[in-house]
């Protein structure tokens, strides 16, 4: 087995561990965040950004939206931010449902977080495919 194959195996392992960590963290939040509440959008700011492809040199432009929102739990107010690219579904004053972790109120779960879990699970399946290719190349 060559050094390159060992490095590739370690790289695959690294991606597995990182992905599994984020999947479990998403499920953890889904389980421990039990108190239903509402967040309210305080401000939405946008910033034009550009991205230059290092291979083609082509520059693309996009808009990044920063949505600052607040929520209350046990009389204390919490502020947080979420980011969107190209389009934003929120505007000032909008409210949305959240679930709060009663032991750690700054830890919240939102409905959009389920999308991240699904994407990460699909990424794990893709990593499994690469694992099969890696194992097949060893024999």
Describe this structure in words.
With 139 residues, the chain is an alpha+beta fold. The chain contains two helices and five strands, in the order αβββββα. It has helices at residues 3-32, 113-138, and strands at 35-52, 59-73, 76-85, 95-100, 108-110. The chain has a five-stranded antiparallel β-sheet. Strand 4 and strand 5 (108-110) form a beta hairpin. The chain is flat and about 60 Å long. The mean pLDDT is 91.
Tags for this model:
five-stranded antiparallel sheet, flat, 2 helices, 139 residues, alpha+beta, single chain
Segments where pLDDT lies below 50 for 5+ residues?
Answer: none
Class computed from helices, strands and strand pairing: alpha+beta
Outline type: flat
Profile the largest sheet. 5 strands, antiparallel
Q: Order of strands across the biggest sheet?
A: 3-2-1-4-5
Mind sketching the topology for me?
Blueprint: H1 3-32, E1 35-52, E2 59-73, E3 76-85, E4 95-100, E5 108-110, H2 113-138
Antiparallel strand pairs: 1-2, 1-4, 2-3, 4-5
Helix pairs in contact: 1-2
């Amino acid at each position: 087995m060559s050094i390159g194959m060992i490095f590739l195996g370690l790289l695959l392992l690294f991606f597995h561990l990182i992905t599994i960590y984020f999947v479990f963290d998403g499920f953890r939040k889904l389980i421990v965040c039990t108190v239903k509440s509402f967040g309210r959008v305080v401000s939405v700011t946008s910033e034009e950004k550009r991205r230059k492809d290092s291979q083609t040199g082509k520059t693309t432009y996009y808009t990044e939206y920063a949505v600052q929102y607040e929520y209350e739990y046990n009389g204390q107010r919490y502020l947080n931010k979420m980011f969107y690219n190209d389009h934003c579904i929120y505007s000032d004053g909008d409210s949305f449902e959240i679930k709060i972790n009663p032991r750690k109120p700054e830890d919240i779960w939102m409905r959009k977080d389920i999308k991240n879990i699904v994407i990460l699970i699909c990424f794990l399946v893709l990593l499994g495919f690469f694992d099969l290719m890696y194992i097949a190349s060893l024999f």
